[in-house]
Amino acid sequence: MAVSDSREVVIEATPEEIMDVIADVKSAPDWSSQHQGAEILEEDANGRPGKVKLKLKTMGISDEQVVQYSWTDTSASWKLVSSSQLKTQDASYTLTPDGAKTKVRFEITVDPSVPIPGFVLKRAMKGGLEAATDGLRKQVMKVKKSKG
Predict the structure, then answer these.
(1) Is the pTM of this model over 0.90?
(2) What number of other Cβ atoms are within 10 A of residue 79's Cβ?
């Protein structure tokens, strides 16, 4: 059964600064507790990650996934290519500039290929949403500080 959720966060940075952090998939384990590793298999024409192999661990469940990214100036999304634990996964970041800040909306839909108790799946989704928003915000501010 597919489960969807979303979360928004406001980050005091430009969409470009935020997209740079999202595109730096190899740094994801630094700011997302679920990410154990990331390897870029293919890049798109702009040098951003295209096909990416991810090692993830959530609620004691390990998974190796291959995802295909799509990029615009104000969005990043990915679709699941392969996984040992999921049938499908669609996720996206949508960035809306708001003066010196940017509103970031993260949306995700997952469909586990193995039965997972509802409360475990909900908790895993909540952890993923927190990492994708609060973790992203902390990393963007850290990168911004180190450059400034």
Answers:
(1) yes
(2) 13
